Every structure is written in C-alpha cells, then in structure tokens.
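re: that chain from earlier
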Amino acid sequence: MQIKTSHFFACLDRLRLIQRWSLMRNIEKENLAEHSLQVAFVAQALAIIKNKFFGGTANPERIAVMAMYHDTSEIFTGDLPTPIKYFNPEITHVYKQIESAAERHLLSLLPNELQADFAPYLDSERSSAEEKHLVKQADLICAYIKVQFELEHGNQEFKTAKARLEGLMQQWHSQEMDYFLQVFMPSFSRSLDEIAL
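^ sequence. v structure.
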C-alpha cells in the first residue's frame, strides 16, 4: 500500500485559531476548537436525555461526533458573523452552499480509503433531520452559555445576542432542551467552590 500525506488533521488543528464572536468585545475569547468540544458534550447529553425521558432513539455517540465536526467548514470560510450570514435569504443560501463545498473539500483531504468512514460526520447532507436538530440545539445552548457568561461579567455588548438566541431557542425548542436548561444551566453562573461540592 502506497502511503500519501494527508492534510486533514493539520486542517482540523486550525480550529483553535478561529475566534468566535469576532465582531464583539469579549471578556473571554472562545475559539472554534473549544466551542466544538462543548457542543459535542451537550449534543451527546441531549441525545441521551431524549432517549431516556422522551422516547427518542438517537445514537448519542454519533451525535457527539457529528457535533465535533459541525463547524469544520469554517476552517476554510472563517466564522462569518451571524448578522452577515443571515442578512437576507440569498446570502444565507449562498453561504450554505459554500459550507457544503468546504465540507466536501475537507473530506477530500483524507486518503480515499478513509473518506467513506468520515463522510457520515463531515457531510451534513447525510444526517437525518433529528440528528441535525440535536446538534443545532446543542450549538444554540453553547452560544447561550457564552452570552450569559459575558453578560454576568458586565459585558452589555451581548445583550442583543441574548435576545436573538432566546428567539432561536424557541424555534428549536424541545423537551430535551428544556430538561438541559432546567437541570444543568443554573450551575454555569456559580463559582468552582459552589459546583465542586
């Protein structure tokens, strides 16, 4: 077997270089690698909660891996700020096409023999509506955690983002999201001493 160099993981390593919330003053910076890991944690939890309490049949491990890769297209596109991404339907549609092309390009960087194994996680078009829904909910929850942190530390720049996120969370509302917000969200505003008990 002839071994050829692949740039796939070197590209993934660059997730840590992409800053989120780039048009806003941040008390604490957040990069895409950190965000992706947090989304994976939350998405897996949402899938487990859905299965345990609300009759779901999601695969939590698959959901977690999908969430790890959910923003990898931004290695090539950068983190386009939300006001631009959703400025109008035409821009949104074109940006989604660019994201799909970036996902396909990242997949093409893998050795041919591995592409079929990674495609179910990298190609968002291969995901079911339920799977996309769980990852999107996790993405919104993690953005909300960030916004709450900034506001609690006096950064009023995130006030509008909080209102926008609350509207989106209503759109993507589910029982598993409600459960997560009620059971886990209150701890995020507490000190280490309070949560380590």
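The chain is about 65% helix and 0% strand.
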